[in-house]
């Protein structure tokens, strides 16, 4: 990683942890603030490099509070995954990877035969939700349903993004990263992860 990329990663990590920004937005803002121009090819850190910087930032500034905040968020994620079992939910993002704080939104991937199944399930459960989409280069936009849920542990409202994916995407989504770590996990995997942390 270049010096510029390392500086951007450190600044972006603070934005992710302290302001709850998503990775792409944090990298762009950090690059503009530090470089005074839009980042060129090779100047932005990869998501894996930014995640390493996030872990370092947490270890330095939030080591005393982050573990309990992470557990509270995972408990919320698990409750939603249990509610949405027919839609094959998998937790992804910071809450799955272990870098979430109270500022983080939850990201749950739903794998559906029909993209409308998720909306129908939420309507049947009388859940209020917002409908949006996420642009994907070269692919159809990804439907995103967003709900708000109250956390008594955190004393605030947590945003939950439900990303509605095609059922065929599930197999590829379970491929690990370069270090062999999973990008997402189902409810059983999340319970094992939480049980293991509770024993340490």
Helix/strand layout:
Blueprint: H1 3-19, H2 23-35, H3 47-61, H4 66-83, E1 90-92, H5 93-97, E2 106-112, H6 116-124, E3 130-136, E4 139-151, E5 156-166, H7 170-173, E6 184-185, H8 187-199
Parallel strand pairs: 2-5
Antiparallel strand pairs: 1-2, 1-6, 3-4, 4-5
Helix pairs in contact: 1-2, 1-3, 4-8
Summarize the structure.
The protein has two domains: 3-61, no CATH class; 66-199, Beta Polymerase, domain 2 (2-Layer Sandwich). Helix content is 47%, strand content 22%.
Structural descriptors:
alpha+beta, six-stranded mixed beta sheet, 8 helices, Beta Polymerase, domain 2, 6 strands, 2 domains, 200 residues
The portion of residues assigned to helices is: 40-55%
The helix tally amounts to 8
Strands ordered across the widest β-sheet: 3-4-5-2-1-6
Assign the CATH class of the largest domain: Alpha Beta
Task: Report the major sheet.
Answer: 6 strands, mixed
What does this structure look like?
By secondary structure, the protein is of the alpha+beta class. It folds into two domains: 3-61, no CATH class; 66-199, Beta Polymerase, domain 2 (2-Layer Sandwich), CATH 3.30.460.10. Helix content is 47%, strand content 22%. The protein contains eight helices and six strands. The chain has helices at 3-19, 23-35, 47-61, 66-83, 93-97, 116-124, 170-173, 187-199, and strands at residues 90-92, 106-112, 130-136, 139-151, 156-166, 184-185. The chain has a six-stranded mixed sheet. A hairpin with a 2-residue loop joins strand 3 and strand 4. Helix 1 packs across helix 2, helix 1 crosses helix 3 and helix 4 (66-83) runs antiparallel to helix 8. The chain is globular.
């Amino acid at each position: 990683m270049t010096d510029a990329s390392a500086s951007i990663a450190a600044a972006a990590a603070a934005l992710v942890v302290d302001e709850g920004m998503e990775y792409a937005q944090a990298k762009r803002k950090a690059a503009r603030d530090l470089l005074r121009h839009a980042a060129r090819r090779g100047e932005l850190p990869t998501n894996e490099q930014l995640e390493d910087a996030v872990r370092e930032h947490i270890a330095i500034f939030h080591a005393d509070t982050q573990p309990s905040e992470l557990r509270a968020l995972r408990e919320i994620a698990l409750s939603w995954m249990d509610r949405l079992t027919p839609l094959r939910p998998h937790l992804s993002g910071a809450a799955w990877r272990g870098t979430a704080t109270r500022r983080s939104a939850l990201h749950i991937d739903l794998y559906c035969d029909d993209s409308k199944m998720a909306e129908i399930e939420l309507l049947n459960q009388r859940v209020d939700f917002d409908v949006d989409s996420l642009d994907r280069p070269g692919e159809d936009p990804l439907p995103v349903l967003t709900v708000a849920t109250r956390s008594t542990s955190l004393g605030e409202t947590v945003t939950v993004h439900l990303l509605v994916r095609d059922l065929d995407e599930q197999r590829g989504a379970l491929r690990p990263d370069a270090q062999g770590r999973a990008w997402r996990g189902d409810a059983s995997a999340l319970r094992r992860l939480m049980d293991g942390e509770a024993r340490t």
